[in-house]
Design a protein that fits this description.
The protein is α+β, with helices and mostly antiparallel strands and about 290 residues long. It has helices at about 10-20, 30-35, 75-80, 85-95, 100-105, 105-115, 120-125, 145, 220-230, 235-250, 260-275; strands at about 5, 25, 50, 60-65, 65-70, 130-135, 140-145, 150, 155, 160-170, 175-180, 190-200, 205-210. The chain has 11 helices and 13 strands. The longest helix is centred in the last third of the chain and has 18 residues, at about 235-250. The protein binds flavin-adenine dinucleotide. Flavin-adenine dinucleotide binds near residues 58, 96 and 110.
Length: about 290
């Protein structure tokens, strides 16, 4: 029998988290699957469970000060349905799990689970998202890249709860999320790429690329992006061998039951090439219907 707590407020939840060393439980789709498999990404169920999915402070989507703020306990379905959410993140939501899992699973849960294959992570890196963590001594904000430390590892302190994900406003002429998996949804990514670009007058004015499932954490390099900004399509084409060589050096994929390291490396470099030579220069974005 697992001891559990259902607090009324965030303040009460934080007190319990601190006093009882309780595990936050939002939708439970990762925690329960890990428990069934009897393996441990944190689900040490000798510790009490703290339900956070209903907390007002962790729910809902709002716009404030040039940011979109998404409560950590907002479900994947709610994120997908909200037109204010950037298309890139909505595209990723539509390819996650199944409708039933998306109705339970939360954005905060996907982040805190910190799976290299987590679908929300590459889009959130590209969108420069930050996370707000509430703890016994107040709140702190971190970039996503600072928060996620490795597979199943985050900088979440023992007294903290993730309350919101914050996305600064931005506009792009091209947006693309590509998940390579055995099926369109209900399957974890072998590799994924989130990409956005701004092209004006035939020149790349902004570029952001983040690859998932090819290293312990999401691979994004502002340095490589900067090398391409300010260039035309022809110039980008000329720079491709050098750029792909740089990304090749950043990838650190593994062999596992879903794919091989060699496949992951090859496909990721092809996706980057495709975006830089074709997709970045068009604006043909469609949000999948999410019925998969
Ligand atoms: C059948 C199936 C298919 C799936 N398919 C996909 C897929 O295609 N892509 C994908 O990325 N994922 C997939 N998942 C994984 C999962 O559904 C997502 O990661 C989901 O977003 C997890 O959210 P949750 O609320 O259920 O997390 P939970 O299971 O409740 O928690 C996950 C982790 O986050 C912590 N946590 C949760 N909320 C907070 C908080 N507010 N503060 C601090 N810590 C918190 C928990 O302690 C735990 O460590 C799938 C899962 C299943 C069961």
């Amino acid at each position: 029998m697992v001891k559990s707590f259902y607090p009324d407020t965030l303040a009460e939840a934080l007190r319990i988290r601190f006093d009882e060393s309780a595990i936050p439980y939002a939708g439970g789709t990762d925690l329960m699957a890990a428990r069934r498999r009897g393996m441990g990404l944190l689900p040490d169920f000798r510790r009490p469970v703290l339900f956070v999915g209903h907390l007002r402070e962790c729910r809902g989507i709002s716009r404030r000060n040039n940011h979109l703020t998404i409560g950590a306990a907002t479900t994947l379905s709610e994120v997908w349905e909200d037109q204010r959410v950037p298309d890139l993140l909505r595209q990723a939501m539509a390819m996650m799990a199944s409708p039933a899992v998306r109705n339970l699973g939360t954005l905060g849960g996907n982040i805190c689970h910190a799976s290299p294959a987590g679908d929300a992570l590459p889009p959130l890196h590209v969108l420069d998202a930050t996370v707000t963590l509430a703890g016994a001594e107040g709140k702190r904000d971190l970039n996503l890249a600072e928060f996620i430390l490795g597979p199943g590892r985050t900088d979440l302190h023992d007294d903290e709860i993730l309350t919101t994900i914050n996305i600064p406003d931005s506009a792009f002429t091209s947006t693309w999320y590509r998940k390579v998996a055995p099926r369109r949804s209900s399957a974890l990514a072998k590799v994924s790429l989130a990409a956005q670009a701004v092209v004006r007058d035939g020149v790349l004015n902004d570029l952001r690329l983040a690859a998932g499932a090819v290293a312990p954490t999401v691979v994004r390099s502002r340095q490589v992006e900067e090398m391409l900004i300010g260039h035309t399509a022809t110039e980008v084409h000329g720079l491709l061998p050098e750029i792909l060589g740089k990304y090749d050096g950043l990838l650190a994929p593994i062999d596992d039951q879903r794919s091989t390291a060699a496949y992951r490396r090859k496909v990721t470099l092809r996706l980057i090439r495709y975006f830089l030579t074709r997709r970045a220069w068009t604006s043909d974005d469609k949000i999948p219907d999410g019925k998969g």
